[in-house]
Design goal:
Helix 13 packs parallel to helix 14. It is built from 15 helices and 17 strands. Strand 8 and strand 9 form a beta hairpin. The chain has three domains: about 120 residues, CBS-domain; about 120 residues, CBS-domain; about 120 residues, 2-Layer Sandwich (Double Stranded RNA Binding Domain). By secondary structure, the protein is α/β, with parallel strands linked by helices.
Length: about 425
């Protein structure tokens, strides 16, 4: 199955000069959380590239004059996905870009693929309690301002509402779409019957021309959350995640009843779980037997999976094969050699490593595998630089992990090393 099989063809787009009031109106009407911005629009929506994305979360959690502020003031970078891309690739891009949906691009925007679309098709095994995150909540006496404060401080897009003094008595949930209703009560939206709706300068009558009935921040903070709360489905902790996925295909979240309280699961939580399992499954180790240390094997899989997760941000991947060969013993210890083959869309990465004659690390499988994986990382960075700009987030994360000793062996990164590219 590919992106074009699940994508929504009815795409909403804006240009850089579209007022946030119009964008917010369309988001509220369509029940969407993001709108892609095109640099130059024409009637066929084929000219210009995607400049970025306007997200609902940024609009409702910051202080803007919605009528005067335009899309270019709040635009965020976004990835694009091709119609023939795999669903795995779309999931990787959505999770790594922290978006809820991505534009599907084929010489112009031909649709949108969202996390809700993907959870319908990607199978995640396990129980609800395995994925549930803490349920952040306010009581039903609080104002919208309190819910907004938690969203900003905790970097979340939804907050639970519970009965005052009864932390497990859930009234519902308030999310960014609910805040949008509070910001623009009674908003009407431009008409648009085409498969791609364009609005703003070249579109229909703007929100600012029709009505300036937006609520002031001081008023908004005092409005009760009960005016905008929505209901969310409940499940027990032992509920199968496939049932949770079914619920999330039509809901923003699922509340989980745990033995020690409440939790919450979102579509992105399911996608992260799916990709994490997939990263481990992409690691194939050949040459070990029952006599080998199970813990060593797990460490190798974990480190290789971390590299796969990073590379998935900018390349399509096939299984990484790690070939391990045992040689003659040096006394009571075993000498290992390792070969790694890793086919990717930016080339086949191959690394070979073995213990040297005077190496003191004989019998340490993880050490020689780590060296080979380090070589794969270096080759991946060089290959990436040929096709894309360096992924600074990846470089920074990998450097901090190694400086903190995370991985198979602790190593301080020296000044001027290959990892210091940012």
């Amino acid at each position: 199955m590919h992106v074009h099989d699940l994508m929504t063809k009815d795409a909403i787009v804006a240009d850089l000069d579209t007022p946030l009031s119009d964008i917010l109106s369309l988001m509220q009407r369509r029940g969407i959380h993001q709108v892609p911005v095109i640099a130059q629009l024409d009637k066929h929506h084929k000219s210009g590239d995607v400049s970025g994305m306007v997200t609902l979360n940024k609009i409702v959690t910051r202080e803007f004059d919605l009528v005067k502020t335009t899309a270019k003031a709040v635009i965020s970078s976004t990835a694009k996905v091709a119609p023939d891309a795999t669903l795995d690739r779309a999931a990787e891009l959505i999770v790594n870009s922290n978006q809820r949906a991505l534009p599907v691009w084929d010489n112009g925007i031909v649709g949108m693929i969202s996390e809700y679309d993907l959870v319908k098709a990607l199978i995640v095994e396990g129980r609800a309690e395995d994925l549930a995150k803490p349920f952040l909540a306010v009581d039903d006496k609080a104002g919208i301002g309190k819910a907004k404060e938690i969203m900003v401080q905790k970097n979340v897009s939804r907050v639970g509402v519970v009965r005052a003094g009864r932390a497990t008595d859930v009234v519902g949930v308030i999310g960014t779409l609910d805040l949008a209703k509070a910001l623009a009560p009674g908003t009407k939206t431009p008409h648009g019957g085409a498969s791609v709706v364009r609005f703003g300068k070249a579109g229909a009558e703007t929100r600012s021309q029709r009505d300036r009935g937006y609520m002031e921040t001081s008023q908004l903070d005092s409005v009760s959350v009960m005016n905008f709360v929505h209901q969310a489905p409940f499940v027990d902790g032992d509920t199968d995640l496939r049932k949770v996925a079914e619920l999330l295909s039509n809901n923003d979240e699922v509340v989980v009843k745990l033995s020690d309280g409440l939790g919450i699961i979102t579509p992105k939580d399911l996608l992260r779980a799916y990709l994490s399992k997939r990263s481990v499954e992409l690691v194939q180790i050949v040459g070990l037997d029952r006599e080998d240390n199970i813990l060593d094997v797990a460490r190798v899989q974990q480190k290789a999976a971390q590299i796969i997760e990073h590379l998935a941000r900018f390349a399509e991947l096939q299984p990484m094969k790690i070939y391990i060969k045992k040689h003659k013993k040096q006394g009571p210890k075993v000498k290992y050699s390792v070969k790694i083959e890793f086919p990717t869309s930016i080339g086949v990465l191959i690394a070979n490593c073995e213990h040297g004659e005077k190496d003191k690390s004989y019998d340490q499988l993880t050490t020689v595998v780590q060296r080979a994986l380090d070589d794969i990382e270096r080759m991946a960075r060089k290959a990436q630089e040929k096709f894309h700009k360096p992924d600074r987030a990846w470089v920074s994360e990998m450097r901090s992990e190694k400086e903190e000793g995370i991985g198979l062996r602790t190593r301080k990164i020296k000044k001027g090393s290959a990892m210091r590219r940012d």
